[in-house]
Amino acid sequence: MDVVGPLERGLAVLRVMSAPGGHRMRPSELARATGLARSTVDRVVATLVHLGHLREIDREVELAPPLMEPGNAYLAGCGIPDALGPVAERLADEFDESVSVAVPDGDGVRFVTQITRRRTMSLAFRIGDLLPAERCAPGPLFATEWDEAARAAWLARRASPERFPEHFPAVPARPPVEAEEFDRRVAHAAADGWAADDQLIEPGLIAVAVPVRGPSGRAACAVSVVSHTSRHTVASLAEATLPRLREEAGAMEAALARVLAERASGGPGAAAAPPAGADPARTAKRELGPEFLQSLARGLTVLCALDGTRSLSEVAESTGLARATARRALLTLEHLGYVEHAGRDFRPLPRVLELGYAHLSSLGFAEIVQPHMADLVRRTHESASMAVLDGDDIRYVARVPAYKIMSVDITVGTRLPAYATSMGRVLLAGLPHTERAARLAGADPRPITGRTVTDPAELATIVEGAAEQGHAFVDEELEEGLRSLAVPVRDRAGQVVAALNVATHAARGPVEETLAALLPPLTETASRIEADLRAVTRGRRLRLP
Fold first, then answer.
1. For all residues of the chain together, what is the average pLDDT?
2. What are phi and psi for residue 252, nearest 5 degrees?
3. How far are the Cα atoms of 385, 483, 514, 517 from residue 522, in angstroms, in the given order?
4. Which residue in 336, 421, 429, 467 has its CB near the most CB atoms, within 10 A?
5. Residue 475 φ/ψ region, left for φ over 0, alpha for ψ in the -120 to 50 degree band, beta for the rest
């Protein structure tokens, strides 16, 4: 077939960077790891940086949250996290154990949902991680449906143990499981309807799993309860959890069928289709010239558009690409194992999650916001901070200082009264009216400088203004000579979860000039942070500091 070379090479770069320890690399290291020419790597990197999938840090590049878009499209289209996530959370609370949902991926098992109990020894696998079928609980359940070709592929992979780390980087290296032992577990899974992992991944780790079948009757996924030998044996874990898992299996299958039906009908659960329009890669090519790989950008756009089963016409329409261009990209993605098709329809495969998803889905709040704040400081030459509301105070959760002779001495964890700070006013403005009024009524505002607003009615008016304008400006109310400007940061649901600000000295110039210089980059930075938060929190709850 006519493979789209730039797309193939771009995905090779992303796979290398998605391996453990590879999420931040120099282009020269990428050239050595992929075997590609340095000039080719430079063009791939330039294209991926322009698309936002990679980010430049000094002389290195690192994976960036927008790279999660293809994986998020797969997860939205398969319906499994949306249908089973609430049940998995409920079971994790009930059992006080970690609960995982995994799907079959070739001769492996890939996680799509993780509800982890926080303990000294806790589960470290992430959404997108791939496990070998023979060394986990869901594997035998999926292997009961293997045909001869699938079993032959598994045996061929086992015959090359030196490639195990490449295929399964999340799994510790251990002696291979004998084929006869795995066959025995598969037979038991077929007869009993459940399977176990008795320390096959690593010593101490145990799990039991049951299948959840899709509308076709085949196992769409498996739900596992994971524990440790310090808490259970496999027998006691099965005794404690299997009855409830089997009870819930029917409800999970019904929920999955309902979500998939809504996806197909375009109802309330349907994933939002990308807006139709002109091909954006064409504009980027005109702007950036030969350094921009148009076919790589188009291929990734096609992959992001596959939020479920889509026909060639639907993909072409939603991406703004010609049918022939979309078809070449789809067939290349199929050749590389990221897409399959039946008849006229194409759908993404779980392998899409290998493109950086495990690393990016595990990022913490500070790791997401820090690079954007550092860029804001470079643009404005002023210190940037982020805070959350904590009672009547704000608490700083991230900070990037600007290095000046005179600087603001604030560290992460610092608390300040919300009523006298720009971030506090933005956070108060994001509350429902009733809660906002109650917070302001109980704030007991006191003068900190001669300019601090302490009148409750005036404060309420200022906060209301911040809600309407989308920003708050404080001029020497917290400290003489100190000005600060803040904007809200919202989550996927549109709720204000944090505030971002820049602080400057009053001697910088008139208020109007300060606002004109600082508000646009501050707003742009908040928008980019929100986009990353939306990408990272698809299917999981991000813990704020």
1. 89
2. -65, -40
3. 11, 14, 12, 9
4. 421
5. beta
